[in-house]
Amino acid sequence: MLPATGDGTDLPEDAPIAVKEAVLPFHRFRTVEGHGVDTVLSPEMKSTGEVMGLDAEFGTAFAKSQAAAYGSLPTEGTVFVSLANRDKRSAVFPIKRLADLGFRVLATAGTAQVLRRNGVAAEVVGKFSEGPGNVVERILAGEVDMVVNTPFGSPGNSGPRLDGYEIRTAAVGAGIPCITTVQGMAAAVQGVEALLRGDIGVRSLQEIHADLTGR
């Protein structure tokens, strides 16, 4: 919402914040072998549309963008976390915040170890490659409400890369949010907090424009 004058670099403090989200309906896509596609974006990604969340605060705007693109963020339940080594330390705070909000935390062994050392209670669950009772089975059984999985390793068909692929495609199949960056995780936490506060509301662009121009 740019003002009528100036170059947009000096906006009012109460100017609304816009969050744009690409719409990528992964559940409609399949590989040539008939498998689900990985939700980690690559240079050949193709967006089928875009949505925008607009509100006074970032968390609320982000929550709106996710609701419009993929469905609302959960406000309770279970979050599963599996992180690349480079992301473990930086993800502790947002995961701890979810735990403080009442979420149950499931994690793979390495991630759970880091979370526990930093005061976050986490239940260890096996990877896809570790056999029966693994996290993919629990996701598909409806026992998980949100997935956080940051990819690691080089592309291939074994090890952590394959585990991550199976986790992310299971999340798509179950229709639950799947977050693949620490930055996205931090944004999602702010969105969950906004939903819990009941901050989500609807205003027309005309109303917002009138507020900005009627000073």
In short:
It is an enzyme of class 6 (ligase). This protein has 215 residues and is of the alpha/beta class. The chain has helices spanning 58-69, 88-100, 109-117, 135-140, 159-174, 182-197, 205-213; strands at residues 17-22, 50-55, 78-82, 104-107, 123-124, 146-149, 178-179.
What do these coordinates show?
This is carbamoyl-phosphate synthase (glutamine-hydrolyzing). Residues 71-215 form the MGS-like domain. It is a single chain. The chain is of the alpha/beta class. It has a single domain (17-213), classed as Rossmann fold, CATH 3.40.50.1380. Helix content is 38%, strand content 13%. Helix 2 links the parallel strand 3 (78-82) and strand 4 (104-107).
CATH topology label: Rossmann fold
Helix content: 25-40%
User: Could you tell me the number of beta strands?
Assistant: 7
Output the number of helix runs.
Answer: 7
- The global form is elongated
Q: Give a quick account of the main beta sheet: strands, pairing sense, barrel closure.
A: 5 strands, parallel
How many separate domains make up the residues?
Answer: 1
Strand share of the residues?
5-15%
Cα Rg: 19 Å
**What is the CATH architecture term?**
3-Layer(aba) Sandwich
Please tell me the overall pLDDT: 83
Protein name: carbamoyl-phosphate synthase (glutamine-hydrolyzing)
EC number: 6.3.5.5
Pfam families: MGS
Keywords: Amino-acid biosynthesis, Arginine biosynthesis, ATP-binding, Ligase, Nucleotide-binding
